[in-house]
Each structure stands twice: as structure tokens, then as C-alpha cells.
Amino acid sequence: MPDLDLLRExxxxxTYYEERFxxxxxxxxxxxxxxxxxxxxxxxxxxxxxxxxxxxxxxRICLLAGPVLADTGGDWWMFxxxxxxxxPKDVADLRCVEVHLPAAGTLVVIPREIGETNGWPWxxxxxxxxxxxxxxxxxxxxxxxxxxxxxxxxxxxxxxIRTR
Length: 164
Description:
The protein is α+β, with helices and mostly antiparallel strands. The chain has 4 helices and 8 strands.
């Protein structure tokens, strides 16, 4: 039987994310966590931390930085974006640098609290009244960043995403 205090905490966190950011957050009772399905109001781009830190710097310079999550080990970063619309046909250049484009329906685990540092911590926290960066802009910034740096090997398969 789930802990009622924890369920209240999850419900409050879900309400916070929905009211502040308009995200379609769901509570997974069995795993005691909050998740967002991709492909509706938001999408994501996942990459190794070494590349992600450079991409985030570029997005900040362009005033396009949005929420970024890290996996539990900090090896992978997930950039939350606006909906992708039509996906580009050729993404081989991104795959070779271990950039992943999660499919619609993929569930993203988000922290219970904005300031949470354990679990899946925020690298760049979401901000109220701040639009998510456009998906194509994050891809273009990633490609531009990759063109300037040597290949960055991925440490392991990302555990930030889960398919239904």
C-alpha cells in the first residue's frame, strides 16, 4: 500500500508543474514518481553530459535555454523542448555523437521538487512564463556545437527515458 503522505506530496508536485508550466504530469503510484509523456505538449533531446554542457551554454547565449534534466549519474542530459512536429529524416550525424530523440509516448521522470538534487536533478530548472525552446533550435544548436568539437563518446545508455 502506498504511503499516503508521499501520495499527497506527489499530487502537490503534479499540481505545481501543471499550474506553473502547463505540463501534462502523471503520477506513477507503483514507482512513486512523476512522469510526463513526450509527443504532446513537449518533446526532448537526450545527449551525453559533455556535449550537453556545451549545447546548454550555446542555448543560453541565444536566450533559448529551457529545462534540462540529468540522469541519476549525471552522465546524460535531457533537454525539454516544445513539440517537434515533423522529425527530420536524416539524423545519422546526431546518432554518431550519441544524441537520442525519444519517441512520442516516451515517459520522462521529473523531480518531485524543483530544487531536488537527488534522483533526476534539474541542470536548468523550468521557469514560469518561459516558453520551452523550439525542438528544431535545440537540434540546430547541437549540430553546430558538434561541428566545433571532437566526437564525445557516450558513457552508457540513457536511463532518463522509458517507453510505455
